[in-house]
């Protein structure tokens, strides 16, 4: 049994976008200078807001869909570990864009989704903006760690248990 088509499409779309956002995020802040930097900020925000929307959609579809049960040979600790990693990834799908939005909004910077302005509902507040930036940055390292764990888990099942879980998600 596979994950439903919508969940498979959303898994790979969100995975691709979040990996791209990590790369754009870390490089645009350090390595790129204006004016290209401002273009990258706009692209980064647009893609980040896209992840936000897709993540809500994914969570709703996930809650109402039948998904394949974990294979019986998966051990209990592996089940628990996988569930914790999935939960953290879902938290980041929502929390990452949220922290970005709060950082920009409280910093007095505009947020647009491919040219469509998104209302800034948080008043200018330097401390809040700085805190949201610290969280956004911390999330970056957390996401790197989680994707690595997630990928190592997949490899472990493929190599040691000869179980290709990708068939369920492809
Ligand atoms: C590095 C490439 C990736 C590979 C090879 C991969 C592979 C997989 C596979 C095979 C599953 C299904 C596990 C099962 O059989 O139950 C899965 C589930 C999942 N993946 Fe990934 N994935 C990747 C990247 C990502 C990224 C970047 C995210 C971050 C958003 C992510 C989030 C998830 C979540 C949340 C689930 C659980 C789905 C659910 O049951 O709701 N994956 N992934
Ligand atoms: C899943 C979505 C997102 C991911 C994975 C992501 C990732 C990142 C990363 C890794 C950085 C570099 C942090 C650092 O310098 O240590 C960054 C910076 C930044 N992100 Fe995001 N981001 C996302 C969504 C957003 C959203 C929705 C916004 C705004 C609406 C946003 C605004 C920014 C800004 C303004 C910076 C530059 C901060 C600075 O001045 O250094 N991000 N992002």
Write the layout of secondary structure elements.
Layout (H helix, E strand, L loop, with lengths): L4 H26 L5 H29 L11 H31 L4 E3 L2 E3 L7 H34 L6 H4 L1
Antiparallel strand pairs: 1-2
Helix pairs in contact: 1-2, 2-3, 3-4
Describe, in plain words, how this protein is organized in 3D.
The protein has 170 residues and is mainly α. The protein has one domain (5-169). The radius of gyration is 18 Å and the shape is elongated. Helix 3 (76-106) runs antiparallel to helix 4 (126-159). The chain starts with a helix and ends with a helix. Strand 1 (111-113) and strand 2 form a beta hairpin. It has a two-stranded antiparallel sheet with strand order 1-2. 73% of the residues lie in helices and 4% in strands. The structure holds protoporphyrin IX containing FE (HEM) (2 copies).
Quick rundown:
With 170 residues, the protein is mainly alpha-helical. It is built from five helices and two strands. One protoporphyrin IX containing FE binds next to helix 1, helix 2, helix 3 and helix 4.
Keywords:
5 helices, two-stranded antiparallel sheet, 170 residues, mainly alpha, 73% helix, binds protoporphyrin IX containing FE
| Low-confidence segments | none
Number of helices: 5
Number of separate domains: 1
- Beta content: under 5%
Shape call: elongated
Q: Order of helices and strands, N to C?
A: HHHEEHH
Helix content range of the residues, please?
Answer: over 70%
Distance between the termini: 11 Å
Instruction: Give the beta-strand count.
Output: 2
The main sheet orders its strands as: 1-2
The SS-based structural class is: mainly alpha
Major beta sheet, specifics? 2 strands, antiparallel
Which ligands does the model contain, each kind named once? protoporphyrin IX containing FE
Structural Rg: 18 Å
- On the 0 to 100 scale, the average pLDDT is 96
